[in-house]
Amino acid sequence: MRLNMNEEGREEEEEMIQGRFSIGEGGGFQKPMKLVVVGYALTSKKTKSFLQPKLERLARNKGISFVAIDQNRSLSEQGPFDIVLHKLSGKEWRQILEDYRQTHPEVTVLDPPDAIQHVHNRQSMLQDVADLNLSNSYGKVGVPKQLVVKRDASSIPDAVTKAGLKLPLVAKPLVVDGSAKSHELSLAYDQYSLQKLEPPLVLQEFVNHGGVLFKVYIVGEAIKVVRRFSLPDVTKRELSKNAGVFRFPRVSCAAASADDADLDPCVAELPPRPLLERLARELRRRLGLRLFNLDIIREHGTRDRFYVIDINYFPGYGKMPEYEHIFTDFLLSLAESNYKRLSGSNG
What we know:
This protein is α+β, with helices and mostly antiparallel strands. It has 2 domains: about 35-110 and about 320-345, Rossmann fold (3-Layer(aba) Sandwich), CATH 3.40.50.11370; about 120-315, 2-Layer Sandwich (D-amino Acid Aminotransferase, Chain A, domain 1), CATH 3.30.470. It is built from 12 helices and 17 strands. It has helices spanning about 10-20, 45-50, 55-60, 90-105, 115-120, 120-125, 125-130, 155-165, 235-240, 265-270, 275-285, 325-345, and strands at about 20-25, 30, 35-40, 65-70, 85, 110, 135, 140, 145-150, 170-175, 185-190, 200-205, 210-220, 220-230, 245-250, 290-300, 305-315. Strands 7-8-17-16-13-14 form a 6-stranded mixed beta sheet. A 5-stranded antiparallel beta sheet has the order 9-12-10-11-15, covered by helices on one side. Strands 4-3-5-6 form a 4-stranded parallel beta sheet. A hairpin with a 2-residue loop joins strand 13 (about 210-220) and strand 14 (about 220-230). The longest helix is centred in the last third of the chain and has 24 residues, at about 325-345. One of its GO terms (biological process) is inositol trisphosphate metabolic process. Its EC number is 2.7.1.134. Keywords: ATP-binding, Kinase, Magnesium, Metal-binding, Nucleotide-binding, Transferase. Belongs to the ITPK1 family.
């Protein structure tokens, strides 16, 4: 696929045969001389939230074309693509993508299906954070103590006691499948109410965090942090008075933005940038993903004790400030590095 050229563009067309990118004076890349074709396979809801007109407009100006993938046709017969962007579920789709990756190594698939599966399960999702055990002069990042319950709700109270978990406990569905239900939370205040929960699920110790969480969006090497309102702190008095299970819909939606709220500075202060950069770098490598976000909380009463409580693949980037510029720059950098890689292997 290439740009329509008038007669004045003949020289550019010849240059296009020799190389795909014009290099800026500073050594960076400018607008590609050939369209970067991004095939996308997204749900209709995801397409609407992500492929907003402002993103498509900016992409066109930068030489990027988004092309819808027809799921009823062979992937190899479509394109040619430089990048495949996807967020669909199902074993069949994963196999199609995996086969396509093997037969089309020149195409960048965002992201590998097996790596995505890893964060679709809350049992494995946070394991890399726990293994990392990140601690430096800027703070410490861990995960809340948690327990996986796959069946038999009646056994939960004993399992919780045996695991040494303290109430209250946050209950989350074990599998993250993109549905609204997979993002619903329950807060269990007492031992008896644990039997009312519905496995399979993950139980996490609730950490008081001032009612604010930090959504850390990662797009390749770019990091953007926004504040969101979260569950309020639970005092010992409330814990002794309350009983039962309280259900919450999706907690940290964009409507709950806390960026402009008048918050206690101790609660509102963003996690230190160097800490987030190291965490993102390590998790990109361990998870094998380039498009994800982290839900991070700071333990209330501390300045430097952080917990990752969730990881989401290809989150709602449309809610992220300046996402159009960040995402298009990322796609161009991918296409450029891919072109260099292929040039090197052909040289």
